[in-house]
Amino acid sequence: MKKSGFKKINPKADALKIASIYVLVSILWIIVSDKILAITTTDTYSLFIMSSVKGVIFVILTTILIYLLIDNNLSSIKESDNRFLKAFNSSPVAIALIHSNGQIIDVNDEYLTLTGYKKKELYGKTTTELNITTSKTIKALIKEFNEKGRINDFKIEINIKSGEKRIVLATNEAITIDGENFNLNYLYDITHMEEVRKLLIESEEKYREIFNNTRDMISLVSLSKEGVPDKFLDMNEVGIKKLGYSKEELLKMNPIEIMGSDETEESLEVAWEKRQKYQYELEGHNITKDGKQFPVEISSHIFKLKGEPVILAVTRDTTLRKKSEKELKSSLKEKEALLREVHHRVNNNLQIITSLLNLQSSKLEEGKSRDILMTSQSRIKSMAMIHDKLYKSQDLDSINIKNYLEEYISDIFSLYEVDRNIINYQMDVQDLNLGIDTAIPLGLVINELLINIIKYAFPKGQKGNINIEFKLKEDIYTLIIEDDGVGLPENLNPNNAETLGLQLTNSLISQLEGAMEFSKDKGTKFKVSFKELKYRKRI
Fold first, then answer.
1. Helix (H) or strand (E) run with residue 467 in it
2. Torsion over CA: 340, 342, 343, 345 (sign)
3. Where are the beta strands (DSSP E) in 80-216?
4. Is 387 buried (19+), middle (13-18) or exposed (0-12) by CB count in 10 A?
5. Residues sharing a CB contact under 8 Å with residue 390, sequence separation 6 or more, in sequence order
6. C or N terminus of the chain, fewer CB within 10 Å?
7. Contact criterion met (CB below 8 Å) for 380 and 350
8. What is the band of 67 on the pLDDT scale with cuts at 50, 70, 90?
9. Cβ contacts of residue 69 below 8 Å, gap of 6+?
């Protein structure tokens, strides 16, 4: 290990060293010089002269020797002093040399930076005169010294030149210089640390306020090496009150101990599977100290606290929500039953009207009156069948149009006693669901167009075919009904027809916000295009 280049100063040892060297050199000089003189001459005068020269040379040599020895020691003292001043001024701690009477003798640069004063403003003054410290602070320092025999890192508040306050740790060291007593005061500024500490305390208080005053149970849980919940580390007041345990009891427990027995295994498996995902949700039950069970929803987040993985679990009592959900489901079932009953009764009423019309038309001879009754009957049947389908559907809001058309068209052919060997029909209908607001006008449109074909396309027992298509493409529904019969009269335009059936058809297509195209080439072809109507869902 390399030795330090600095020379340690020891006044007594250095003085003894100089004296010893001087004595040694003097004795050697006297002995050696006397022998040389005795050998050189025996003449008394010459001996006197040479003795005198020898004395002068001795004085010169010893003077040079003493100068070199003193200079060497003074250089060491100066070097030591420079080292002290450098350490004194470059110290990150504020240092003040204070006389026993309280006057400031010297301060380092950090002291000037801390207090904001200049050296000339400090010298000869006391800290109380400058209001750096107060009499109250001095009394506190004296009390600390009397109780502990020293002052070391004692926290006090000082005032600086600008009027601001600083919090410092004060340490005092008593020293003696030239027989006088002094104190070295060390001041370490911890103002920023105190501000941070206060912020941490405030943050802790805010955390505790949130932690304890939220309506949910919040807990911190340690994780075992296997990654499953181990022990409670903390629990807020809501959880303590809800579970009925004391905090001390809970901190000795495993979260599994407050969970329903039928969910423990599942919860462990979920924790095992999800522990690497850092966040997950569980639903289950908690058991209070007195054995009562209540439903909960647990949201967990895994993070590291002081380098160790822990679970932050927010547990919400879902008793009221579950009760509300149960009541809501019960209410919905009641409304669903009521709505089904409404559709059922509407269907029954329309069926009764259809039966009455059928009974009335059977008593009429072939003619206009009977035809009107049958047309009205088919229209009512179209609506009745939609209510019947809604009554039997799952969601009470839409029907399957394919099933509806298959049954309805078969019934219309039966109503008009159409011989399938003479007039046949083919269907190409997608398996689609339509809401009631679209299905009813669409059903009536199909009814009017289909009856028009049955009545007029194939006169005098003419054979023919009817094709019915219904498809969806890019949000556009397309209905095509075509026949290979005699076609429409040349002067008839379905879009401007005066007959009730075609007027009703145009009105219904307008209700669907759609458009109708037709052609008379080799029979008649109707093409209706529309989008499904958007109404607010019914309750």
1. strand 464-473
2. positive
3. 94-99, 104-107, 151-159, 165-177, 180-189
4. buried
5. 343, 396, 397, 398, 399, 436
6. N
7. yes
8. confident
9. 17, 18, 21
Local structure of residue 365 (DSSP, 8 states): P
**pTM score, whole prediction:** 0.41
In this structure, the chain runs to a length of: 539
Query: Partners of 154 in the beta sheet?
Result: 170
Interacting residues of 371 by C-beta distance below 8 A, sequence separation 6+: 455
Q: Judge contact between 439 and 405, C-beta under 8 A.
A: no
Amino acid at 191: T
Residue 9's alpha-carbon distances to 68, 69, 74, 88, 227, in angstroms, are: 16, 13, 10, 18, 65
Residue 94's nearest CA partner among 177, 162, 169 is: 169
Tokens, residue 124:
């000869």
Burial of 89 (0-12, 13-18, 19+ CB in 10 A): middle
pLDDT tens digits, residue range 122-145?
Answer: 988 999 899 899 888 888 888 888
The CA distances from residue 131 to 122, 124, 127, 136, 194, in Å, are 11, 14, 6, 11, 22
435, 531 contact by CB (below 8 A): no
What backbone torsions phi and psi does residue 522 show, to the nearest 5 degrees? 55, 55
Task: Name the token pair of 208.
Answer: 């505790």
